[in-house]
Design a protein that fits this description.
mainly alpha
Length: about 260
């Protein structure tokens, strides 16, 4: 019996068209199995199959995971800029003149954080655990929120001046935010071990913030003046110390990431 041999030679074009379709179907079946029959898995994992003429039907992602790390860096940069402006305000005669500028940066930080949350819904594979990304974004935002909340107190508490303790706190915040920014850049480069150097410094700076608050409040009660005046200073010192705590929160999250990825 004569049997015709079947030509099984696949061209690169054939593979380019067959393999991606196969992978796409397998991925959709898997996601549907864990997400439910009544939902569209394409919406969940951010896939589309717009096969235009002349292009291969590749598996597409609407967003890349690296964009999340870029947004975290943008958030850290925005927070660092806010700390510099706050430091400038603490060295001026009228700190309230910088309220609007810091308020604008705080709103920009909120926009970046919301963008991170939106992008997480469109990305299938993330560079870190989703919980880590969400928490990092939230805690970095807490830092700039604390800076903005402090400068706002100069307005509604009617504090027309600064003192040495406030200026020292500003230096601590600038250094902490600079270390956060450096750590986020290293995180995007996957240089995990080098991040530890910055988290250690942030922890040291938080301890310095605790010391400044204790000594500032001690000075208030050692040499009491007008009760309203003393209350205002105490409120500023405590708000600044909580902001340094927020910086340490970012460092703690980064340390937990290091344990799992380094």
């Amino acid at each position: 019996m004569h049997v015709n041999k079947i030509n099984m030679k696949f061209t690169s074009e054939m593979l380019e068209n067959i393999l991606p379709r196969f992978l796409l179907q397998i991925t959709l079946i898997y996601v549907k199995s864990i997400w439910g029959e009544n939902k569209n898995p394409r919406m969940f994992i951010g896939l589309h199959t717009d096969y235009r003429k002349g292009s291969s039907p590749l598996l597409h992602l609407k967003k890349k995971g690296t964009e999340l790390l870029d947004l975290l860096i943008q958030s850290a940069e925005n927070t660092y800029q806010a700390s510099l402006i706050f430091q400038k305000a603490m060295n001026e005669d009228q700190p309230t003149a910088y309220i609007q500028e810091l308020d604008d940066l705080e709103k920009k930080g909120d926009q970046i954080t919301r963008q991170i949350y939106r992008d997480l819904d469109q990305i299938f594979v993330t560079p870190l655990d989703r919980e880590d990304i969400i928490t990092l974004a939230s805690k970095i935002d807490d830092v700039i929120d604390g800076i903005e909340a402090t400068i706002s107190r100069f307005d509604y508490l009617d504090i027309p001046y600064t003192d040495q303790t406030m200026r020292q706190f500003a230096e601590v915040l600038v250094s902490s935010c600079e270390h956060i920014l450096s750590a986020m850049k290293l995180l995007s480069q996957k240089k995990y071990l080098k991040i530890r150097e910055h988290t250690i410094q942030i922890n040291h700076l938080e301890n310095e913030g605790n010391r400044l608050m204790r000594e500032g409040i001690r000075a208030i009660f050692t040499n009491p003046r007008d009760p309203y005046h003393d209350f205002k200073l105490k409120e500023i010192y405590e708000r600044l110390e909580r902001t340094t705590d927020c910086c340490e929160d970012v460092a703690d999250i980064l340390d937990s990431v290091l344990l799992r990825y380094s």
